[in-house]
C-alpha cells in the first residue's frame, strides 16, 4: 500500500512527490529523480521495485522513491531541488533514506541538503540503526573515499551491476574476458564500466543519448572515465567507430548491459539481438513482454531489481557490519552479495526450469521483514 506526499513548487509551479511503498519498517529507502514529464504513477511503480530489492536482500527496509517533474538541464535545477529537499526535511530526518537517481548525483544532493540545514540525505539511517552522530558520519564519509578511478559513492551501484554481469557470464559459460555492450554512461554506466575494466572484461561498445562508439578490440575505458561527467561518449574516445545510439544492440557481444533508459529493447529487436545474456540495471529497462520474449529465445536475463540492487546492497555493506568498514570492505561486501545472489538465482532457475526473475520474485515476496529490528545487518547474502 502506497503513501504519497505531493509537492507543488511555490515559485515555478512544478510538481514533485515522495512515495512510500508500505510502512512496516523503521525507514524506507529510494532515489531522488529529476525528470521532465515525471509522474506520480511512475514513482509509485519505482517505489514498489525498491521494496522488491530490499526484500530480496532480506533487510528491514521499505521501498520509497521521490522526484520532481523538471528538466534536469534547466539552469534552475539546483534551486528547484533545494526547495524540494526543504519540503522533505522531516521525512529525511526521521524516515526517508534518500539516494541519487536519474538526473541527480550523490554529492549534489548532499550539498543541497546541507544548504537547507539537513545533516544528510541518509540521516534517517542514524536513528533507525541506533548509531551515534559520530559513528553515522564516520561511516558516511567512507562514501567519499576513492576506490580506483571513482569514489565509493560513485562506484557502488554500477559496481553491483558489473558484478551481476560477471556472475551471469560465469553461469553462461563465457570466458573471463567476455565482451560487453553497455547502454548508458551516466552514474550507473560509468561505474559499471570501471569495474568491468578492472575485472578484465572487454567493453566493445557504449552508447548514450547522443550516439554510440564501438571497437571490437575494446574501448579505452580509463580514458573515457577521465572525461568530465556528461561528456558524450563519442567525444570521450580517441579511437572507435562512431555510430547512432540505436546501433548498440546490433554489435556482436557476449553481454548487453542496460544502464540508462526504460524500455531499452523493443520486441522486434529481440530476434536480432546478438548477445546471449542481458543484464538490466536501469529501472524498467525491459518491458515484461520483451523480457518474456528474451527468455523464450534462450537469452539469460538478469532483471532490473537484481542488476539495479547496488544502492541497497552497498548501504547494507556500509551500515550493517558491527565494526566500521573501510571503502574497500564496502565494495568487497557488494561483490560478495552480488556473486551469491546471482549464483543462487541462476542455479535455482535452472533447477526449477524457470527464469531468474521468477526465482527472485518468489524470494522477495516470501521474505517477511522484522519491523522492530535495525534496518541493516541481516542480509542473507552477506555473512
From TrEMBL:
Claim: Oxidoreductase is one of the keywords in the record: yes
Gene Ontology biological process: L-glutamate catabolic process
Stored InterPro entries: Aminoacid_DH-like_N_sf, Glu/Leu/Phe/Val/Trp_DH_C, Glu/Leu/Phe/Val/Trp_DH_dimer, NAD(P)-bd_dom_sf
All residue ranges annotated as the Glutamate/phenylalanine/leucine/valine/L-tryptophan dehydrogenase C-terminal domain in the record: 158-374
Keywords of this entry: Oxidoreductase
Gene3D superfamilies for this protein: Leucine Dehydrogenase, chain A, domain 1 (3.40.50.10860), NAD(P)-binding Rossmann-like Domain (3.40.50.720)
Pfam families named in the record: ELFV_dehydrog (PF00208), ELFV_dehydrog_N (PF02812)
Domain of life according to the entry: Bacteria
Any one Gene Ontology molecular-function term assigned to this protein's record: glutamate dehydrogenase (NAD+) activity
Signal peptide: none
Family: Belongs to the Glu/Leu/Phe/Val dehydrogenases family.
Name the UniProt record assigns to this protein: Glutamate dehydrogenase/glutamate dehydrogenase (NAD(P)+)
Protein species of origin: Asanoa hainanensis
Amino acid at each position: 500500500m502506497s503513501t504519497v506526499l505531493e509537492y507543488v513548487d511555490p515559485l515555478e509551479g512544478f510538481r514533485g512527490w515522495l512515495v512510500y511503498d508500505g510502512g512496516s519498517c523503521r525507514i524506507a529507502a529510494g532515489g531522488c529523480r529529476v525528470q521532465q514529464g515525471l509522474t506520480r504513477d511512475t514513482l509509485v511503480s519505482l517505489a514498489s521495485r525498491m521494496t522488491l530489492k530490499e526484500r530480496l536482500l532480506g533487510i528491514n527496509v521499505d521501498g520509497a522513491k521521490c522526484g520532481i517533474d523538471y528538466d534536469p538541464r534547466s539552469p534552475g535545477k539546483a534551486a528547484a531541488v533545494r526547495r524540494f529537499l526543504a519540503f522533505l526535511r522531516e521525512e529525511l530526518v526521521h524516515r526517508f533514506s534518500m539516494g541519487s537517481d536519474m538526473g541527480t548525483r550523490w554529492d549534489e544532493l548532499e550539498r543541497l541538503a546541507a544548504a537547507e540545514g539537513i545533516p544528510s540525505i541518509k540521516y534517517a539511517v542514524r536513528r533507525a540503526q541506533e548509531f551515534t552522530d559520530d559513528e553515522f558520519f564516520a561511516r558516511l564519509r567512507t562514501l567519499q573515499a576513492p576506490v580506483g578511478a571513482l569514489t565509493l559513492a560513485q562506484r557502488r551501484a554500477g559496481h553491483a551491476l558489473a558484478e551481476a554481469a560477471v556472475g551471469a557470464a560465469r553461469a553462461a559459460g563465457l570466458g573471463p574476458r567476455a565482451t560487453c555492450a553497455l547502454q548508458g554512461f551516466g552514474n550507473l554506466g560509468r561505474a559499471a564500466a570501471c569495474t568491468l575494466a578492472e575485472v578484465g572484461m572487454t567493453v566493445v561498445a557504449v552508447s548514450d543519448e547522443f550516439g554510440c562508439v564501438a571497437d571490437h578490440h575494446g574501448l579505452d575505458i580509463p580514458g573515457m572515465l577521465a572525461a568530465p561527467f556528461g561528456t558524450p561518449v563519442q567525444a570521450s574516445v580517441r579511437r572507435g567507430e562512431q555510430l547512432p545510439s540505436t546501433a548498440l544492440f546490433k554489435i556482436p557481444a557476449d553481454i548487453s548491459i542496460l544502464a540508462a533508459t526504460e524500455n531499452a529493447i523493443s520486441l522486434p529487436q529481440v530476434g536480432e539481438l546478438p548477445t546471449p545474456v542481458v543484464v538490466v540495471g536501469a529501472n524498467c529497462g525491459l518491458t515484461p513482454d520483451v523480457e518474456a520474449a528474451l527468455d523464450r529465445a534462450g537469452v539469460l536475463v538478469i532483471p532490473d531489481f537484481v542488476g539495479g540492487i547496488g544502492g541497497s546492497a552497498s548501504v547494507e555493506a556500509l551500515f550493517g557490519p558491527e565494526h566500521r568498514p573501510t571503502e574497500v570492505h564496502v565494495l568487497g561486501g557488494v561483490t560478495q552479495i552480488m556473486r551469491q545472489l546471482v549464483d543462487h538465482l541462476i542455479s535455482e532457475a535452472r533447477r526449477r526450469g524457470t527464469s531468474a526473475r521468477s526465482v527472485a520474485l518468489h524470494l522477495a515476496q516470501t521474505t517477511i521483514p522484522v519491523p522492530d529490528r535495525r534496518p541493516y545487518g541481516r542480509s542473507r547474502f552477506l555473512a
